[in-house]
């Protein structure tokens, strides 16, 4: 298999592209041009590498989870993105896009956030580079992710609550796009996942692939060959970051775990790939949760970061061609997996990452190829309110 997508128009097969208002055509063309120029500029890569190492704290460890492995009966390693500065993989991409904004000459940044991890990462890089920062966040998410809201404000960001729709990530994204359309001359939209119009899915993948590249090197240093890689999937940035460097190796099993919400008998979930259909959301064609009239349905997850009715277009392509297996973990299974990791390894994961961990218990009964590597995409400090109700 030779993996070579997207094409020059940003399509991963039939997914991706630019489904955008006329106002955004010129800014997206400018972004494509500047991103391509930056990708060929050794100076840009040198600057980004310095910040990833000295500011973000990379490389993150590949941690052998010995007690968890003993309990499951197969070897498990955790890629510790929760140890990146700000506590989640989101900073990798935020640094890359902020440097690109500076390159273009934009001094105002807008962003959306669900669980607050991307909002904190964006506020952090804006403080680091002296950029104005506005973060849109659903009012419901503001209530359940209060620690991250406080962190964003401490870093100097303006957090704008969104009261429309379900008051979650989808509505925050819509309002951030409206802001971008209105203020496009001086504003850069710093998207947090592999979603949105071209070149965002490609660009975010390129800034997050450091996760998989480090994993490959660290496996070689340990003398092991990974057999299974697992990551949670909402928009899907940590999953693409881990999977991408391994996509041309069919002997390595790749598993993305969606938010199954209240379970397979319920309509309350966020499983866009395994229970959705192709449609258009936030500027690109991808799998979405929608009714027969094409109206976007409400998504549900105990994790605010996975509570999104769509996914990245590259995940839609990988789902169709069967290169990645996508499964679901329910709210209950994710909470149990988080508690299990905390008690066995002394690590409290983000609720998003807990969905990936929940998959391990299903695979235990299916004879999973090991060693298994799970992307621990973020830390669980922000979710202590939810965890506190469960223990």
What this model shows, in words?
The protein has 16 helices and 14 strands. 43% of the residues lie in helices and 17% in strands. It is of the alpha/beta class and 391 residues long. α4 packs across α5 and α4 (90-104) packs across α9 (200-208). The strands form four sheets. It has a six-stranded mixed sheet with strand order 3-4-14-9-10-13, sandwiched between helices. Strands 7-6-5-8 form a four-stranded parallel sheet, sandwiched between helices. Strands 1-2 form a two-stranded antiparallel sheet. The chain starts with 10 loop residues before the first strand and ends with a helix.
Task: Provide a concise account of the structure shown.
With 391 residues, this protein is α/β, with parallel strands linked by helices. Helices cover 43% and strands 17% of the residues. The strands form four sheets. A six-stranded mixed beta sheet has the order 3-4-14-9-10-13, sandwiched between helices. A four-stranded parallel beta sheet has the order 7-6-5-8, sandwiched between helices.
């Amino acid at each position: 298999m030779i993996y070579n997508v997207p094409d020059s128009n940003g399509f991963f097969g039939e997914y991706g592209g630019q489904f955008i208002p006329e106002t955004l055509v010129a800014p997206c063309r400018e972004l494509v041009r500047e991103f391509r120029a930056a990708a060929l500029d050794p100076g840009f890569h040198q600057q980004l590498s310095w910040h990833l190492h000295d500011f973000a704290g990379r490389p993150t460890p590949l941690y052998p989870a010995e007690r968890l492995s003993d309990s499951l009966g197969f070897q498990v390693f955790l890629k510790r993105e929760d140890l990146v500065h700000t506590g989640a993989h989101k900073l990798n991409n935020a640094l890359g896009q902020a440097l690109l904004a500076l390159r273009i000459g934009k001094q105002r940044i807008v962003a959306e956030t669900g669980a607050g991890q991307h909002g904190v990462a964006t506020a952090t890089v804006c403080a680091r580079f002296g950029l104005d920062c506005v973060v849109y966040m659903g009012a419901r998410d503001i209530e359940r992710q209060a620690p991250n809201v406080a962190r964003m404000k401490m870093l100097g960001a303006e957090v704008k609550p969104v009261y429309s729709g379900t008051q979650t990530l989808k509505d925050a994204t819509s309002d951030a796009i409206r802001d971008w359309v209105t203020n496009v001359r001086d504003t850069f939209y710093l998207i947090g996942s592999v979603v949105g119009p071209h070149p965002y899915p490609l660009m975010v993948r390129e800034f997050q692939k450091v996760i998989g590249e480090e994993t490959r090197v660290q496996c070689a240093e340990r003398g092991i060959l990974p057999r299974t890689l697992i990551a949670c999937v909402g928009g899907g940035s940590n999953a693409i970051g881990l999977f991408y460097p391994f996509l041309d190796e069919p002997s390595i099993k790749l598993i993305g775990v969606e938010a199954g919400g209240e379970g397979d008998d319920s309509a309350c979930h966020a499983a866009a790939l395994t229970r959705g259909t192709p449609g258009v959301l936030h500027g690109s064609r991808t799998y979405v949760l929608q009714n027969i009239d094409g109206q976007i349905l409400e998504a549900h997850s105990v994790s605010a970061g996975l509570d999104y009715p769509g996914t990245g277009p590259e995940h839609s392509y990988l789902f169709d061609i069967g290169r990645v297996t996508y499964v679901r973990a329910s709210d209950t299974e994710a909470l149990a997996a988080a508690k299990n990791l905390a008690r066995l390894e002394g690590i409290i994961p983000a609720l998003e990452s807990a969905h990936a961990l929940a998959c391990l218990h299903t695979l235990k009964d299916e004879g999973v190829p090991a060693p298994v590597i799970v992307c621990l995409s973020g830390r669980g400090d922000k979710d202590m309110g939810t965890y506190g109700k469960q223990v």
